């Protein structure tokens, strides 16, 4: 039973009970029919398909436009939408629809009705833009900070307004620490939804971006209740910058209180309200001044974010050199795993991702860039992809339509829209397996957040926000990040665990550490200085029961909490001494973990990445090659599949794998080129293994092609014979501005030695950007991701006079050079309007033309 099915089953029982006890027969019949209609709707949409952010600019939508786009989404293989109202479009002011007003709710009802018809799901943000806030946020529940006046701490407003707000959503940002804020804020939604039976599947909270907020009216009282003393009695120590012991303990207490309040008063209250209204929740906790593991855990669907362009060493992979790594960082699995770890430890099946934000500049993203980023997300435990994103565009608008200020555009005006079904099918094939299996990680790594709070060098008054865009300070440069990175590079599979989560661990009968159905073999504590007393006591209890616990380097030296710290020193020292006799301390914890029998996939050192899953008693691997170190070879699996097979989610084909036993483990012979991915699993029946072929001579087809422009903008009638494969840029002045499809064609003979080969592959080499391929008039497929290769069906080739046609589609970037020269008025959006990847005003007219076409080399092998 899925999370959705479980929710609707419980909802059914509760509603039936309510109907039987509270309503007349007429009302009972009406509401029963209504419920079963809603229940049927909930079970129609497909969570294995990728969903998308759907920005409503000014909420200037129409029934016709909503239906049109939803039909386009369904046809492209998108499974659902996430409505985010944002700023509007100039010239459409009369169509602006105030958020949550009567007309807005009408459009929302139309959306859910049409989505149900098409088998799509609908989520929405609990607000507009981000963070939470708006017109109903008065000063008493608006974001606040403290101000020191003499020896007094005063409360003042930060003044931050909702960013990218939609009409009707403008106003101050919400106080994330106040117990009154969420209950008052959601009253507006209660009122709006009281007039309709339409409901979203999920409510959503975006990444925490409440800047400068570090206080709330009730903070002094909450601090005293939780920490045992009055913070205002120790203002000198609190504001001290010398980092002495007393000062550090007080500042850690302050941060812990902030963390408690954002967890209890924001996250938990929002989730509880959502559950009361029968919404599930998607939550981006990153950026918060709290422990992300605890925050992500409260949501039904923890959500991470893939922002920016990675630098995978895959041959021919397009990289946007204008992306500023120093400013925004790059997607990193160490950050992504906070969401998936929280899901695993709290028993949640789904982990989502805001996917491919600013992967490259506008009009410059190729699908061959998208797939590796998504593959990396899969290996980090994500299984519910949300594209970032698609902007609603009025039906009367033409290319390039309405655009959100941040790339990537996955919508109908995107240059890769024709190929979108290829991407969505691939993701669906992956997520069907990833969602129907449990993650098989056997190591827990403690996240020592108190060491961060103790070493904070941020300016006075700042709170430590765990921002996904700048992970150097709180992950990569910390012992925690260095240790986790080393573990992953050595093939260990792991989840992170917080202080609060350690308190809920229990030791199973076989010595496993258990929580919410997940089982682990050991806990690793990275080298850290501080350990909370409760965490120490939990570890001590588990160690005495026989849990395997290893401390890296040394045991922690200090406890947390300023209250009575002098009198608690002896107790801490005593319990640390007891712990020392029950745990392992090692400068080489990886060696200890290996000796304890934790699984280790040593083949990751070949540049492969993976996630290991359990489906019943069977072990399933998802493996992706995001490097240029491995092509094929023998690898040793920690778990031995019966009749091992390789399943390609790209082609939906399965084939048996050559295998052999070695030292009690199964060795498989794996072919996986850079850019490729696959599942390794057991087969219900023995498949003949793929033949290992060495040194087959390839047929080079790189010369003598005819190039013909087919369709695109501007319309071009042009044909040319070329000897060497090359970009069509430079053929003529007009081709430098062309966006569309160009056919490369040639005839060839098939050598006798290749006529006898049982499997032939067409390798297109470098393609800018995707290619539909025909051989002898028959379409054999579309090459849209790296490596650009397609299998040639048997008996399709003749000994001589074969016709090969490669219809290449490029990016729209070259055409935008012309659009911005002659018709730049398409940039007509309020707020930030449209910016480039450096957040400068967008202007494509100054770009150099980008290579386009079939660059090769082209071979058959």
Total strand segments:
41
CATH superfamily of the largest domain: Glycosidases
Report the CATH C-level class of the largest domain. Answer: Alpha Beta
Class from helix and strand fractions: alpha/beta
The fraction of residues assigned to DSSP E strands is: 15-25%
The geometry reads as globular
Mean pLDDT: 93
Count of folded domains: 4
Organism: Pseudarcicella hirudinis
Keywords: Hydrolase, Membrane, Transmembrane, Transmembrane helix
InterPro entries: Galactose-bd-like_sf, Ulvan_degrading_GH
Pfam families: Glyco_hydro_106
Describe the structure.
The strands form 10 sheets. An 8-stranded parallel beta barrel has the order 1-2-3-8-9-10-11-12, surrounded by 5 helices. The two termini are 46 Å apart. It is 30% helix and 24% strand. The longest helix is centred in the first third of the chain and has 32 residues, at 245-276. It contains 23 helices and 41 strands. α7 (219-227) packs across α9. With 861 residues, the protein is of the alpha/beta class. It has 4 domains: 3-430, TIM Barrel (Alpha-Beta Barrel), CATH 3.20.20.80; 443-595, no CATH class; 602-682, Immunoglobulin-like; 699-860, Galactose-binding domain-like (Jelly Rolls, Sandwich), CATH 2.60.120.260. α10 links the parallel β9 and β10.
């Amino acid at each position: 039973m899925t999370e959705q099915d479980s929710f609707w089953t419980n909802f059914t029982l509760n509603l039936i009970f309510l109907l039987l006890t509270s309503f007349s027969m007429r009302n009972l019949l009406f509401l029963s029919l209504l419920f079963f209609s809603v229940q049927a709707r909930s079970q129609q949409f497909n969570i294995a398909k990728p969903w998308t952010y759907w920005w409503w600019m000014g909420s200037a939508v129409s029934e016709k436009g909503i239906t049109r786009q939803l039909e386009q989404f369904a046809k492209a293989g998108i499974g659902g939408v996430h409505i985010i109202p944002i700023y509007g479009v100039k010239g459409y002011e009369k169509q602006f629809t105030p958020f949550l007003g009567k007309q807005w709710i009408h459009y929302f009802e139309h959306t859910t009705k049409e989505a149900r018809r098409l088998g799509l799901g609908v989520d929405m943000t609990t607000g507009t833009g981000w963070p939470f806030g708006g017109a109903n946020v008065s000063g008493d529940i608006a974001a606040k900070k403290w101000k020191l006046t003499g020896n007094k701490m005063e409360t003042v407003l930060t003044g931050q307004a909702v960013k990218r707000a939609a009409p009707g959503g403008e106003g101050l940002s919400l106080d994330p620490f106040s117990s009154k804020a969420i209950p008052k804020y959601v009253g507006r939604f209660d009122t709006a939804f009281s007039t309709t039976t339409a409901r979203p599947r999920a409510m959503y909270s975006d990444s925490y971006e409440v800047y400068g907020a570090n206080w709330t009216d009730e903070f002094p009282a909450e601090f005293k209740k939780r920490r045992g003393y009055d913070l205002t009695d120790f203002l000198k120590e609190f504001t001290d910058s010398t980092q002495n012991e007393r000062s550090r303990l007080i500042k850690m207490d302050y941060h812990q209180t902030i963390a408690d309040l954002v967890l209890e008063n924001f996250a938990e209250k929002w989730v509880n309200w959502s559950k009361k209204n029968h919404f599930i929740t998607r939550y981006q906790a990153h950026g918060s001044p709290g422990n992300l593991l605890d925050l992500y855990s409260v949501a039904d669907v923890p959500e991470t974010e893939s922002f920016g362009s990675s630098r995978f060493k895959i041959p021919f992979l397009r990289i946007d050199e204008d992306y500023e790594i120093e400013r925004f960082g790059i997607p990193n699995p160490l950050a992504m795993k906070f969401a998936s770890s929280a899901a695993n430890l709290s028993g949640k099946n789904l982990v989502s991702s805001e996917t491919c934000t600013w992967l490259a500049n506008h009009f410059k993203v190729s699908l061959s860039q998208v797939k590796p980023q998504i593959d990396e997300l899969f290996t980090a435990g994500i299984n519910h992809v949300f594209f970032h994103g698609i902007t609603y565009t009025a039906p009367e608008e033409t290319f390039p339509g309405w655009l959100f200020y941040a790339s990537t555009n996955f919508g109908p005006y995107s240059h890769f829209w024709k190929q979108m079904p290829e991407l969505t099918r691939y993701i669906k094939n992956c997520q069907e397996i990833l969602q129907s299996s449990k993650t098989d990680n056997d190591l827990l790594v403690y996240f020592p957040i108190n060491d961060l709070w103790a070493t904070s060098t941020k300016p006075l008054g700042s709170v430590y926000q765990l921002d996904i865009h700048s992970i150097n300070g709180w992950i990569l440069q910390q012992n925690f990040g260095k240790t986790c990175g080393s573990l992953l590079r050595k093939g260990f599979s792991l989840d992170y665990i917080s202080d609060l989560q350690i308190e809920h661990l229990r030791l199973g009968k076989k010595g496993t550490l258990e929580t919410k159905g997940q089982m682990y073999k050991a806990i690793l504590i990275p080298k850290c200085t501080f350990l909370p007393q409760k965490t120490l006591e939990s570890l001590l209890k588990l160690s005495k029961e026989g849990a395997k616990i290893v401390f890296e380097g040394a045991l922690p030296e200090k406890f947390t909490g300023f209250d009575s710290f002098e009198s608690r020193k002896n107790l801490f020292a005593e319990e640390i001494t007891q712990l020392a006799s029950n745990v392992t301390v090692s400068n080489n914890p990886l060696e200890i973990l290996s000796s304890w029998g934790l699984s280790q996939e040593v083949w990751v050192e070949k540049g492969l990445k993976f996630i290991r899953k359990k489906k019943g008693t069977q072990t399933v691997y998802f493996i992706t090659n995001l490097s240029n170190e491995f092509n094929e070879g023998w690898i040793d699996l920690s778990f031995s599949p019966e009749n091992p097979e390789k399943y390609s989610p790209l082609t939906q084909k399965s084939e048996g794998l050559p295998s052999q036993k070695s030292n009690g483990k199964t060795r498989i012979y794996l072919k996986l080129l850079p850019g490729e991915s696959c599942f390794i699993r057991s087969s219900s029946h023995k498949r003949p293994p793929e033949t290992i072929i060495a040194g087959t001579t390839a047929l080079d087809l790189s010369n003598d092609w005819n190039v013909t422009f087919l369709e695109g903008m501007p319309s071009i009638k042009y044909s040319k014979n070329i000897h060497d494969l090359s970009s069509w840029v430079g053929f003529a002045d007009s081709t430098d501005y062309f966006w569309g499809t160009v056919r490369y064609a040639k005839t060839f003979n098939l050598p006798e030695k290749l006529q006898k080969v049982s499997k032939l592959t067409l390798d297109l080499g470098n393609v800018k950007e995707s290619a539909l391929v025909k051989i002898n008039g028959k379409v054999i497929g579309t090459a849209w991701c790296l490596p650009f290769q397609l299998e040639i069906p048997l008996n399709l080739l003749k000994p001589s006079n074969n016709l090969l046609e490669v219809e290449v589609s490029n990016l729209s970037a070259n055409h935008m050079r012309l659009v911005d020269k002659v018709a730049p008025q398409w940039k007509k959006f309020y707020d930030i309007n449209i910016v480039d990847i450096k957040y400068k005003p967008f202007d494509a007219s100054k770009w150099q033309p980008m290579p386009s076409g079939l660059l090769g080399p082209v071979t058959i092998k």
